[in-house]
Amino acid sequence: MFEFLDTTVNVLDKGNDRLVLTERKKPSIDFNAVTFSYNDGKRPALKNLDLSIPSGAKIALVGQSGAGKSTVVNLLLRFFDPQTGSITISRKEIGKYSIQDLRRQIAAVFQDTYLFYGTVEDNIRVAKPEASFGEVEACCRNSNAHDFISALPQGYQTIIGERGVRLSGGERQRISIARAMLKDAPILVLDEATSNMDASNESAIQESLDRLARDKTTLVIAHRLSTIIDADEIYVMRNEHIYEHGTAQELISRDGAFMELMKAQNAG
What we know:
32% of the residues lie in helices and 23% in strands. By secondary structure, the chain is α/β, with parallel strands linked by helices. A six-stranded mixed sheet has the order 6-7-8-3-9-10, with helices on both faces. A four-stranded antiparallel sheet has the order 2-1-4-5, covered by helices on one side. Strand 4 and strand 5 form a beta hairpin. Helix 5 crosses helix 7 and helix 7 runs parallel beside helix 8. The protein is globular and about 50 Å long.
């Protein structure tokens, strides 16, 4: 524990500019020739990555494990900084914003949902502590979580245990979606948000995610390719860079790397 507490933090605030995003002007995101390696350069993850997410667009990243998809998310949230290149939001380098202000503008739903010991309401309200119960309940209805929460012994006041051990994977994910809805940030990141779901859960959760993504600039990392067919642009990653990109129809017609992934998934 002491070793962990003594660890040097490498990602620090470089600036204190406010990141103010209005409802009328949704943010754009650009990765410009970004290169990043883990372990002090020993494990390459991205090489000269160029990626553009226009204002209000839904962009998907697909590719085999280790292609660098989750690294894109880690860099956008400034868990790490790239060795070279730049990342901008609305044309301004993200390092000029305070880390807290940057992350306040991004809502994320990850493959593994972290829930802490406390009530269901507390776990959702962490996204917006000042929210009313009515706001919390409305988000739960929109995320298809209200019915199962209401059926719990104490409803929204039910203690769910460390990491939500008393809930199923689908129930934890719906709480995570409700949390992101309550935050209502203009940038949305979905990182393998349905990968652990069975077919019955996936349909309800995908419906919730579609509601969540409305009117937001959205980055989706997907394992199940059926969930991103409607994306404005799909980027296929291979060997730490973008191998091909286009709409689903364009990529299917090329019969390239995207179709290889589709065929492998269908065979599975």
